[in-house]
Specification:
- The chain has 518 residues and is of the alpha/beta class.
- It contains 20 helices and 21 strands.
- The strands form 5 sheets. An 8-stranded mixed β-sheet has the order 5-6-7-4-8-9-3-10.
- It is elongated.
Length: 518
């Protein structure tokens, strides 16, 4: 009997899953010490863990706790193993380290006697088998077999330089065949976490085989968590949430219980627009929601929910306008749009770099649109381009006449965009990149004071957002409802006055439009 018990104990101690479910203690959310047991999300991740894993999830599913214990277990039971855990703030790193240390210090005394700690400081544990577990906000310069990055979406959104350091430093310490887990809630449609999720999801949807350097996509929604349900009695469900639940059932085949709907409704009272980010039902929903610091996030979310991001057709009876952001270093961004009554139909978006200015002028002229005006920032005529000529002069020589928008404070231009976005309808394909830029345009983060600044963060979204701000400021200088017949008459009049063929890429301004300035 004694030998059987010993064999059983030896068998259990060799089983990593048994160890995770039986050896480690944690402090639960209610501050009660309890033995760790994997929940459904943790066990699903454990059983399907790939070499590289990217995890999009709802709140409070314990993914970071699970991975921290998993890596501790790997270090305790494997010699010369190095594991690192990265958090998005120093405070979160300290919290994760306390969890790891608490789990180790509450091991059975017999295990602690076998696996002692040679070095124990504020951020790392080094064991007598040569293994090391570190927790911090960066792991540059470390050689790791296991790496976990917690809340990478937040790091990408608030600390882009730190995100870049993690990508170039920490992630480069992992070779093929070693293990990475990256988890986060979503933080908008930009940044490395978003791009990695979408690429991994596309590979999953396409059933493409993964190499050891490809990321496996994981998504853990709120509605799969059994505790996210309450007694529905006396819990009113507002009509907008009823519509949302109906949409989930009809479009996503997600059928919620009355208890789940009641839980969601109560949670929504405090979370509001952040609900879909913190407790997403689908991957797309998590990225579509507004987030802190975004200038246009909630307005673009509304555009999606109202079906204003769809196929948009060019209306030949209306002129097409363009709005530009001319990067005086390199990048150029252009929007094409029409004003149809009270609606603004956004047809196309282009952003590129490494091309001469004349390349963009030709590209605009070569499109088969009947153009109205081409709008640019107020200072376009000031900056020299080549041989002392401004971009305005170069454009005029190439058949495009720019109209300069008024000079306004930046925040007033941003407010102009906010005031007109509910009138916009975007082509979902030709404007896809520009839509992402608008959804990603955000304030800069003030590390010192821990708050958002009023000024925008200069990132990949800046050029597209600046060009769209020009669009918003151009609206008083467009003629809503101008028809193709109006344009034809203008062309005929201009041709008759000149007595020769006129290039109508930019029609002359008639009397009733004068006063706006060109």
């Amino acid at each position: 009997m004694k030998n059987d018990a010993l064999e059983e104990a030896e068998k259990n101690i060799r089983d990593p899953k048994w160890r995770l479910d039986n050896l480690y203690w944690i402090v639960a959310q209610d501050a009660i010490k309890m033995r760790f047991r994997m929940n459904w999300a943790q066990e699903e991740l454990y059983r399907g863990l790939w070499y590289c894993n990217i995890i999009l999830k709802a709140r409070q599913l314990g993914i970071s706790t699970f991975v921290s214990l998993l890596y501790l277990d790997r270090c305790l039971f494997n010699s010369n193993c190095s594991a690192g855990i990265i958090a998005h703030t120093k405070e979160d790193a300290e919290m994760l380290f306390r969890r790891v240390k608490f789990a180790y210090e509450n091991l059975a005394p017999e295990l602690q006697a076998v696996r002692t700690v040679n070095m124990d400081n504020a951020r790392e544990l080094q064991f007598n088998n040569g293994s090391l577990l570190r927790v911090g906000t960066s792991m540059r310069g470390s050689t790791l077999q296991y790496l976990h990055i917690s809340e990478y979406g937040k790091i990408c959104a608030k600390y882009p330089e730190k995100a870049r350091e993690i990508a170039t430093g920490s992630l480069n310490t992992i070779a093929a065949g070693q293990y990475v887990t990256i988890e986060s809630t979503a933080e908008g449609r930009s940044g490395a976490f978003y791009e990695m999720c979408k690429y991994a999801q596309a590979m999953q949807d396409g059933k493409q085989p993964l190499t050891k350097l490809d990321y496996k996509f994981w998504f853990f929604p709120w509605w799969r968590e059994p505790t996210y349900s309450i007694n529905p009695e006396n819990v009113p469900i507002p009509q907008d949430l009823r519509d949302y639940f109906t949409g989930l059932e009809q479009n996503e085949k997600i059928v919620l219980t009355p208890g789940q709907k009641a839980w969601y409704a109560k949670k929504f009272l405090t979370q509001s627009l952040d609900m879909k980010r913190e407790y997403p039902a689908t991957p797309d929903e998590s990225f579509a929601t507004a987030n802190e610091g975004l200038y246009y996030g909630s307005l673009m979310t509304r555009a999606r929910s109202e079906g204003r991001i769809r196929k948009v057709y060019y209306e030949e009876s209306l002129p097409v306008f363009t709005s530009w952001d001319l990067g005086f270093s390199d990048s150029t961004a252009i929007w094409w749009y029409q004003v149809a009554g009270q609606e603004i139909h956004v047809l196309e978006y282009l952003e590129d770099s490494g091309k001469p200015f004349t390349h963009y002028l030709k590209l605009v002229k070569d499109k088969s649109y009947s153009y109205g005006k081409h709008f640019a920032p107020h200072d376009i005529a000031v900056h020299e381009y080549i041989h002392g000529a401004s971009r305005v002069e170069v454009a005029r020589a190439n058949g495009i006449i720019f109209t300069q928008v008024p000079k306004l404070p930046l925040i007033e231009g941003i407010d102009a965009v906010r005031n007109m976005l509910n009138r916009c309808v975007f082509d979902h394909e030709k404007c896809a990149v520009g839509i992402r830029m608008l959804e990603s345009y955000k304030r800069a983060w003030d590390d010192k004071n821990g708050c958002w600044k009023e000024d925008p963060l200069h990132n990949e979204a800046s050029h597209g957002a600046d060009a769209f701000r020009i669009l918003a400021l151009s609206l008083p200088d467009t003629k809503p409802g101008m028809t193709k017949l109006d344009l034809d008459r203008l062309k005929a009049n201009a041709s008759g006055r000149a007595g020769h063929h006129v290039n109508y890429t930019q029609p002359p301004i008639p009397a009733y439009q004068r006063g706006f300035g060109r």
